[in-house]
Design brief:
The chain is mainly alpha-helical. The protein contains 8 helices and no strands. It folds into 2 domains: 8-42; 47-163, no CATH class.
């Protein structure tokens, strides 16, 4: 095998790092964003704002965009009904408590939609600040909350479009609760 040439962008970033140290991250970020804008004519900030606005307006789009790995098939009537129920929670005008309960077979996406996607979507929309989720057991409730935490920590697309979800970190880069 021959020696692979170093990517010119990486080589440039390494030079900047040697010369400027820690400030290179910001400089490289600016360079990358400018090159992205120059190459495709899109402003990354504008694209992010557009996707964010669309996701905040449409629960189904929010699910497919940020949790697409869980939704591999087109929604059927039962899933569409779940989305309709979640959309009823977005009405700020009434501010009456909304209750929802659904019994459906395993694998229909109830937990993913209603216990992962819906709480995040409603909080990001600022429709509801406190959401009560009830589960059959304590362990089940912990799993549901841990799923939200896991997505907030690891879902890069979600964090890019909603930087306010970025968990706090200490000086060593460890998560702070």
């Amino acid at each position: 095998m021959g020696v692979r040439e170093k990517d010119p962008v990486i080589a440039e970033q390494e030079k900047l790092y040697k010369r400027y140290g820690a400030d290179v991250i910001q400089m490289a970020h600016k360079i990358f964003r400018q090159r992205l804008k120059d190459s495709n004519g899109l402003d990354p900030d504008e694209a992010m704002r557009t996707e964010r606005a669309k996701a905040l307006d449409d629960f189904d789009y929010f699910l497919k965009r940020y949790f697409g790995q869980y939704f591999k098939y087109e929604d059927g009537p039962a899933q569409q009904e779940l989305n309709t129920v979640v959309n009823k929670f977005r009405d700020k005008a009434s501010r009456k408590p909304v209750k929802a309960s659904r019994a459906m077979p395993r694998g229909y996406g109830k937990s993913t939609r209603n216990s992962l996607g819906a709480p995040l979507w409603l909080m990001l929309r600022k429709d509801w600040h406190f959401i009560v989720m009830i589960s059959s057991t304590r362990d089940s409730a912990k799993r549901l909350l841990n799923a939200i935490i896991q997505e907030v920590e690891d879902n890069e697309l979600l964090l890019r479009d909603f930087p306010e979800l970025e968990p706090a970190r200490d000086q060593k880069g460890q998560l702070v609760s």
